[in-house]
Design goal:
9 helices; mainly alpha; globular; 70% helix; Tetracycline Repressor, domain 2
Length: 194
């Protein structure tokens, strides 16, 4: 989701175009409607390279989702490192809104897959979901009960609302949406103000 999803690491320079192509194609055609040939063609790499690096389309999907979730969690951690404890939850909302605004296709893919358990990449999804929810929960106020439940609710609300705003609002402004959600969370969702 964040830019770091497409940053270089041990997968080498092929990761960027492969992940971009896979995200676009999975978003356009769904997983089952996308082939490794199409991903290779769009990424500008040999099909053999995809199989060498990822082994199969399902392993590529698992890696894509796991790396994206890890990048999102890391972005949240980095942004919250500079925020006071009482404002970290606001930073979480800002990071989520901006990540979705920058990478809506990945956000749709992540949202569609996060709670499925019938896929070959179910282990990666479970680990990704746990990482994201635990990361979010660690930046919510600790004086309230159910931080994991609240983190899940916050994640779903922000991701869905941002995607909906991107589709529905030609004058989409991430800062305005984040502010609106912060007010909603502070005064409309939490049992007591932060």
């Amino acid at each position: 989701m964040p830019g770091e999803l497409l940053a270089e690491h041990e997968d080498g320079p092929t990761k960027i175009p492969v992940f971009r192509a896979a995200i676009e194609l999975f978003s356009e055609n769904d997983y089952s409607g996308t082939t490794m040939d199409e991903i290779a063609l769009r990424a500008g790499v040999a099909k053999g390279t995809l199989f060498y690096r990822y082994g199969s389309k399902s392993k590529l999907m698992g890696k894509l989702l796991a790396d994206g979730g890890a990048a999102l969690a890391e972005s949240i951690k980095q942004a919250c490192a500079f925020a006071s404890e009482t404002t970290q939850w606001r930073v979480v909302i800002d990071v989520l809104v901006n990540s979705v605004a920058e990478h809506p296709s990945f956000a749709k893919l992540l949202l569609a897959e996060l709670w499925r358990n019938d896929r070959p990449w179910s282990e990666e999804i479970l680990a990704t979901r746990t990482l994201i929810v635990d990361t979010l929960a660690s930046y919510l106020p600790q004086n309230a009960s159910g931080p994991r439940s609240r983190a899940t609710s916050l994640f779903g609300m922000v991701i869905f609302s941002t995607l909906e705003s991107l589709v529905d609002d030609s004058d989409f402004n991430p800062s305005e949406l984040a502010s609106l959600m912060e007010n909603f969370v502070e005064f409309g969702v939490l049992s007591s103000p932060i």
